[in-house]
Write a structure and sequence with these properties.
Blueprint lengths: L4 E5 L3 E5 L5 E5 L4 E2 L2 E2 L7 H16 L20 E4 L3 E2 L2 E8 L2 H10 L1 E2 L2 E2 L9 E7 L2 E2 L12 H8 L1 H23 L3 E12 L5 E4 L8 E5 L15 H4 L8 H19 L5
Antiparallel strand pairs: 1-2, 2-3, 3-6, 4-5, 7-13, 8-11, 8-12, 8-13, 9-10, 13-14, 13-15
Helix pairs in contact: 1-6, 3-4
The structure holds ligand PZK.
Ligand PZK binds next to strand 1, strand 2 and strand 3.
Length: about 270
Amino acid sequence: MTGLRHVYSGKVRELYETGDGVLLLVATDRISAFDHVLETEIPDKGKILTQLSLWWFDRLAEIVPNHLVDAPIPAEFAGRAMACRRLSMVPVECVARGYLAGSALADYRSSGSVCGVTLPAGLSDGSRLPRPVFTPATKAPRGEHDQNIPAAVVAERVGADVAAELERITLEVYLRGAELAERRGIIVADTKIELGFDSGGALLLADEVLTPDSSRFWPADQWSPGRSQPSLDKQYVRDWLPPLLPEPVVERTRDTYVRAYESITGLSWG
Ligand code: PZK
């Protein structure tokens, strides 16, 4: 492919640069579980997540501008790539949570708080929080886990003004995303976004947004705090330990991604 330079491999995504300095963010069909990339791919996963991100970027444009640019996508990446402008990425994982799960649940159980925010007593796995909270995390090096940090530490790293903007944008993206998904019967328990500065110093929404790989989506009709919630992603994969997935597990996993896309957008997949 002429003028395409590979710049970075993520666990499930690839980053390329075109001859014009445009970045191509390519979502593969790879799936990771328990910090490992499995040998088995999930057909169309990358396309589904890319199309869901594009759908969200459109809905969130009033809240925050994004990194998308209008540039041709090479045929080999059709449907699974986003052309984006190169940003100077903010060195903080921006997370908003409306429900208690994952690392926030672990922090709550050991300290009663998460990222310096004290939560009410008596919450359990899957509980709705009194209000959504900004729970930033460090970007850990490859192979390590992100670590939750207080908002004050974000301010030390990026300055108080930028930190306040990160919190505002993250909470607004979460609130808008959760509101739209709720109408479709899906709880957005939490979401992680990436932001970066363009050459003019504006903060733009980057990466993928409000996908099952960056968020916890729970079918609302099955929500029942006090246990881990069934989620619209790789639940079947996590419940299946060996690395080679049998066809029914692949099929049901693919179905959950299709269901996330169709439930949220109201569109049909293919
Ligand atoms: C950027 N990633 C994560 C994505 C990977 C890794 N607009 C941008 N400008 C500069 N850098 C990035 C982005 C975006 N989005 C994204 N890391 C850097 C990532 C896809 C594949 F391997």
